[in-house]
Input
Amino acid sequence: MRPRRAMLFMPGDSERKIAKACTLQVDSIIMDLEDGVAWSQKQNARETVRRALQTFDFGERERVVRINPEGSGLEEDDLEAVLPGQPDAIALPKVETPAQLIWLDDALTRWETRQEAEVGSIAILAIVETALGIVNLREIAQASRRLQALLFGAEDLVGDIGGVRTAEGREVFYARSKLVTTAAAFRLQAIDQVFTDLHDLEGLERECRQAVQMGYQGKMAIHPRQVPVIQAAFSPTPAQIEAARRLIDAYRQYQARGSGVFTLDGKMVDAPMIRAAEQILARARQQNVPHPEHENGDGRE
Ligand code: COA
Ligand code: MG
Output
């Protein structure tokens, strides 16, 4: 699966912001047709996004369109307008039931068949941001083979539940944790909530660190300033890669001598830590992070 560290949103009616995103070092660009676009600008946004998809040079960046939710009455026209631009993925917001993803999967299959394109080539990213969506996560995660990532929408969730959004985030911790756990269970990527304070880069970094610790693989961004912080936070550092490699090397040596558990630098090491170290190396490979010298023998993804 492709890395999705920073996923930068911008309103689909802003050609200027889409163009700007194409100059940034960012894994994914999400052109929005939903809540970032005023009602009067929906049609304008559809046309702007299609034009951008057809004419801008996105380079290696993933080209994602967030359409309006299934059931909004806008979703069919959104798809029809943007699919001719051949986006890499469609992000579906407010996903609450598997049926909504099945609708999107079927619509994409019909389009691909009509275009004689490979069926399944357009990915689906599901934004889960309502109480019902959190309750139904297990079924949502299994609804479509196109589904690659679950994105956690904290602001909408708190609005839906009737809680109060705080900097500490205890009000969303259960859901944020359930989402990343469900994603791991079904081998999907988990993408963390938006950080809405555009000027607090330290707070953003703290929240990224917490997300990494929880197992998130990326985070949504809403301003270019947030992008380098997020891209860096979700990339293993050379020191982390080296430490993971050293751990795995030691583990192999002890295994060969018949011990499954040993100490390294005064700390106990056993199989779970090796799996965590392997995840770091897999992530580094996926992101093409340059490796320290001796790459060998762990070609797992
Ligand atoms: N993507 C790409 N470029 C962006 C951007 C974004 N999300 N946000 C700002 N920029 C650009 C601006 O166009 C400006 O470029 P310019 O100097 O070439 O004109 C530059 O970055 C600096 O922008 P700034 O003046 O600091 O921000 P702003 O006041 O223009 O916009 C927001 C603030 C919040 C409206 C804007 O960041 C935004 O639209 N964010 C995305 C919101 C969104 O999509 N929400 C829905 C999903 S949660
Ligand atoms: Mg939302």
